[in-house]
């Protein structure tokens, strides 16, 4: 089997070295990569960020920031750059990036520039306010300089969860069926499961389509559940549900909480992993002000930008159903519940966390028992 979807840009990039020793010997500087850099490097060298073959240079960075596209017009959601505060690091240098003692990749730097971070945040996140977690990350975590350069992969970063390459995932997908991607960064509860399994009934999906549940397990917002714990919840749920039309894989991606722009980035990545369709939820990759609690994006902004770029991307967005749980009929759409006058059950995320910490029974209509057990043992 091999996925029928064409990679973004036409070719699935593979930057892994044929001769690791020669690649390492060419490096003159060693650097420790941050968690976010490790995610970016892995997705460049394994083709998850195809057609990128390295960190973006200044021209490519500016094109993506201003136009949401590479210089040749290929759609790309967010810039992928190497950041540093090192004054001595210069273009022409080949650096060996490491994770502890493990050599991960070399980067042949081609340029170095001081980015306009305020404009980057305004264009990519829709705001330059530090209350936005993505803007805060750009302003306080990233270095003063950005550098572009070709990556040569050496070893995959070591993680507590397995992350297959796009080529490996594609080999496991059917070559004659639609593949619907479901992106998440939180544990999957009942409503999520109902949402992505019912998506297979959408008329946009061909007969016999499958779902690829593809959670991001890299760095995210400060108050999100750690990636290793999330991974454990997915594994127990995969075992509990044992649904032959649901595939589970894991993505080493660091979230930006960039709303509409990030929806595009996710569609590109999942296209490279072999997906033909992508479920777009309400306020996907959205975030709130850390001061006012106000949403930065409209509920349907991500869906709108996905629809507007679907043809260029070659990925069909599938709007997520607005599901509610009713006493009479279980899960149904909010519109149907209203039309029939059904009694809706609600449980907020805040209340759920309180009940979790307090050892209270969690309703099975809200969360799977196996997931609740993992969360209680790990948070």
Description:
With about 375 residues, the protein is of the alpha/beta class. Helix content is about 35%, strand content about 15%. It contains 13 helices and 14 strands. It has helices spanning about 20-25, 35-45, 60-65, 115-125, 135-140, 165-170, 190-200, 225-240, 260-270, 300-315, 335-340, 350-360, 370-379; strands spanning about 30, 55, 80-85, 95-100, 100-115, 145-155, 180, 210-215, 245-250, 275-280, 315-320, 325, 330-335, 345. The strands form three sheets. Strands 1, 2, 3, 4, 5 and 6 form a six-stranded mixed β-sheet that branches. A five-stranded parallel β-sheet has the order 9-8-7-10-11, sandwiched between helices. A hairpin with a 3-residue loop joins strand 12 and strand 13. Helix 8 runs antiparallel to helix 13 (about 370-379) and helix 9 (about 260-270) packs parallel to helix 10. The longest helix is centred in the middle third of the chain and has 15 residues, at about 225-240. The protein is globular and about 65 Å long. The mean pLDDT is about 95.
Helices, strands, pairings?
Layout: H1 20-25, E1 29-32, H2 35-45, E2 54-55, H3 58-67, E3 82-84, E4 94-99, E5 102-113, H4 117-124, H5 133-140, E6 145-153, H6 166-172, E7 179-182, H7 190-198, E8 210-213, H8 227-241, E9 246-248, H9 260-272, E10 277-280, H10 301-313, E11 316-319, E12 323-326, E13 330-333, H11 334-340, E14 344-345, H12 349-358, H13 369-378
Parallel strand pairs: 1-4, 7-8, 7-10, 8-9, 10-11
Antiparallel strand pairs: 2-6, 3-6, 4-5, 5-6, 12-13, 12-14
Helix pairs in contact: 8-13, 9-10
